[in-house]
Each structure stands twice: as structure tokens, then as C-alpha cells.
Predict the 3D structure of the following.
Amino acid sequence: MCPTGKELPVLGARSFPEEADTGELPNEAGSCWRVRDPPSSAWMGMGRPARSRSPGQLENSSLFLQAFLLLLLCRHVSSQCKILRCNSEYVAATLHLHGPGRGAAFCTALRSYSLCTRRTARTCRGDLAFHSAVHGIEDLMIQNNCSKEGPTALPRPRPPAPNPQGFESLDICDYERSFLYKHGRPPGFQHCAAFGDPHIRTFHDDFHTCRVEGSWPLLDNDYLFVQATSSPVAKGSNATVTSKLTIIFKNMKECIDQKVYQAELDNVPAAFQDGSVNGGMRPGGSSLVIWERSPGRHVEIRADYIGTTIAVRQAGRQLSFSIRAAEEVARAFTEEQDLQLCVGGCPHSQRMSRSPRERGRVPAETARALCREMLPVEDVYFQSCVFDVVTSGDTNFTMAAHGALEDARLFLPDAEKLHIFQAGGGCPLISPSFLLFLLPCGLWAVLLHF
């Protein structure tokens, strides 16, 4: 059994790792992420998932019946019995009904469900799905104090045919086009990256060098889960590098099946774990695709249905991760999903200075010369490059920092934020103009004191 740990989103049956069959996913640090239910997959609702409820509450009966009905939809029944249509209409009518205020609408849906079963009763005699539905309706109406007399919901109208000159139904799986149609402007984007030691550039353009070892979440929101596994860069070193990446694209019923991508050192595949290269057989399956940019070294995953692009690279003995995510997607998480390196950066106890204080495997001046060939601007990417080469002795780390900078050049919405200048300890450098401002303030404070 794993100790208590963070939570992972529930995985689909076709892609769930074997270690997680018990509901827990162990990581290399000996801790584990505990599986939790995913949020509703309704398109870009950005809502918070409902709180779990005790077994004694009445709502469980409704949820159980909905799950049972969804299973029944997969059964083969005779063409005469229309119970599957009744089931699907009930599920659609109650899918978004939650909480104590659902009473009247829920009872209306149950009465409509009951009316539908009565209309098809003659052709459904002996059908298990039909009789199970009838008994389930009776129990739910008693539990929710629903009267058998009252209004029923009108049949759902057929959706209008797509307008060739307007917004078509399949465009719901094109986030940028959908956002522009709804808001009249393009969406905003944010960038995060993890490379080298690892060095983390957050969505808010903070930059940290971390000593994190084991498995840590880079992202954990309603649409994506990204976990990085780190190991020491060299024996006895406090520095670590990313040796494994796991990316979960959570199920979205209108667009994609849940997909899991996993990369390890010397194994950067151009396919998801199930062997596919797109989002599956759903109408919007092509809105999630993998492109191989350099065989075994660089892949790009485009998730157009959430306006997100991810790059995974291997340089030397480390993996790097870069993402361009829609602001709406990057912010779609709850208070419980509080540990995300792309959002909050490294925990304070795990941050390191990028100024090597110990004798490294490569002299600092040699490392600086090597890094300057790839990174002429001495920003945080240059500092990270020098730190990694000195610490590891591996000159391939110059490619890791260069690749991260190139991804930032492509993914950052504001080109002026490409270069970040910090002191080696990770604190922003103070500008000369700010120092000139502080000087008279300090003198004034001294005069007041005396």
C-alpha cells in the first residue's frame, strides 16, 4: 500500500497503468499519487468538481442509476424496445443537476423518464434493462419525495444543421476559434518550462532551480496532469534532472478519449501509451495529435481542443518539458490541486542557487565559454546552462538550455518577456534606477531618526 499522497486523475480502462489498479499510483520517490474523480467534461465549463458525498446521502442513488443507465446503453437490445432512448434522455436531463436546489427539476426528469417507460412498456416485456429502470425510477421518486402528478420535460429538440457560413458544431474542439466566436477576441496564453537540473519557468515568469527528487506535478488541473520524475544528475550531487515525464490528457466527451503520454530517457515516443497518435475515434479526435520533430529526441503534442501545445525533448541525459497553454485552461484547478510547479514554482525548501559554490566537474570559465556559443545573452537560460555543465560535466546540457529558449521564443505570447535576468540565487536583479530611488529615501529616513 502507498502512503498518503497527492491525487491523480482517474484513468481510463484502456490506458490506466498497472500499478494504479488499486486506486494508487506509486512514484519513484516512494510516495504515491492517489486517484480521484475527474471534473465534469462539459466543454470549458471551468466549474469546480462536486464534493464527494457520504454513502448515506440520497444523491448517491441518482448517481448510481445514471452510471447503471450508461452501462445499459452499451447492451444489445431488440430494435422494438425503446428503453435505451428513455435512458439516454434521462441521463442528459440530469447530468448537470447537483446539490439541494435540484429538487423540482429532478422530479420533472423522473416523471418524464417514467412516462417514456410506460409508452414503451408493451414492446419491452422481459427486457432486463426496462424492468431495472422501472424499479429504479420508483425508488428515486420515493427518496426524493416526488409526486407522480406534475409537469414533465418537453422532448429535446433536434440540434440545428450546421451553418456552412457560421460556427459549426465541430468547432467546439477548436479552442481558439471557439473562444474568438464567443468573446470576439483571441484567447490569452501562458508558458511554462522545465529543463536541465531541473530549472522551472512558471506561468508567471518566475524562474527557479530545484533540487526536487522523485515525482512532482508540473500541472494538475481540470484538463491536464503532468508529472516529472527526477533523479540525481551525478552520484553524491544535490542537483537532479528529469528522467521521466507522464502527461495525461483528461477525457472530454465532445472531443477526445483520455490519453496518456509517457517519455523516459532514450525513449521519447511519437505515440500515446495505447499506440495511437491522436485523440481517438470521437468526432473531434483529430484535435489532439502528436508530431515527431526529431526521431527519439523531440516530439510536439498539439491539443487544439484546449488551445495547448506541448514540447518534449531529450538532450544528453535529461528530458525537458515546455507548454503553451490557454490562460483559461492553466487556471482551471481547485484549492486541493495546490502543488503545481508550473503555477507556484519550486517549494522554498527545494530551491537552489545557480552560483556553483563547490568545485565542479568542469571549470566555470570553460562552462561559460561553451554556453556562450549557444546562448549569447547572459540571462537565466545562460546561468542554467553554466550551472548544469559545471555540475554534471556533460556538455549536452548546452542543448537543453538552448532548446528551452527556442520553445519559449515560440510559446511566449509576449516576446519582450523572453529573457529573464536574475542573480544566481534566483532573486531578480535590482535595476540602477531603483537604487537611485532608494538612496534619497534612505537618507530621509536617517534625518527623521535624528
Q: What stands out?
A: The CA atoms of residues 354 and 387 lie 6 Å apart.
